[in-house]
Amino acid sequence: MSTATQNLTVTTRPWNTRGHADHGWLHTYHTFSFASYYDASYTSYGPLRVINEDRVAPSKGFGAHPHAEHLIWTYVVSGELSHKDSLGNVETLTRGDVQFTSAGTGVRHSEWNGHTEREVHFLQIWAKPSTKGLAPEYVTRRFEEAEKQDRLARIIDSVDRVGENADNAEGPIALHADLTMDTTVLSPGKKVVHDLVAKGPRKVYVHVVMKGRLQPKQGGSQIKIGDKVLGEGDGAFVEGAEGPGTVEIGNIGDSEAEVLVFDMGQK
């Protein structure tokens, strides 16, 4: 294990301490304060504002509602999620698709599960933009399983690093914030090493995707970062990271682990 990882301070966010709601049609966990869940200790982390892990029942969903001055993206784990917005975008997302909306000066959208039998499982993530008053923007990009298998795939990156690339078919989605999101599907016994994307102090957050509605009492996905072990639905705040440097994540469980890694500035 690298020296950079050993010097980190890792504070876990256990799955069952997050905000949680079961509305019948919506089963959700909130890493940060959201809707009726509020905890002053968990309102944001760097530019990260929301990490919701949602399961929506067949033929149910969120009606049209407004957003402004947030960067919002959806990472589909399984099932089908349909989207419609005031910019004229209408599409259905499946596993591998990441849909990004820069709400900017204002946009309305709705999201629903159009399938009549299977629920849809996805993560919705929000961040605060570094620039206000942006024109609304919408991007969908697909990331194949091979890109994530036992390696880190860059899903989201700062426009300052990758440039305006909304028209590109490949590569990370650009957003106006000092933030990246990588993902990996890590086999048992394998590890990945994340290279911090900028010089100086960095905040890192790691989230393990859930396979079911509860974390298994035994087995299931398990990763190790620093001296801490994370199971399904767990997250970790990583402090002390400084670029140039690395953060190492290893799978110590007996099954694959799907992991999201956020690397961001201090604000």
Automatic annotation (TrEMBL):
Superkingdom as given in the UniProt entry: Eukaryota
InterPro entries: Pirin, Pirin_N_dom, Quercetinase_C, RmlC-like_jellyroll, RmlC_Cupin_sf
Pirin N-terminal domain segment(s): 18-126
CDD domains hit by this protein: cupin_Yhhw_N (cd02910)
Record-annotated Quercetin 2,3-dioxygenase C-terminal cupin domain positions: 167-264
Pfam families in the cross-refs: Pirin, Pirin_C_2
Family statement: Belongs to the pirin family.
Name used for this protein in its record: RmlC-like cupin
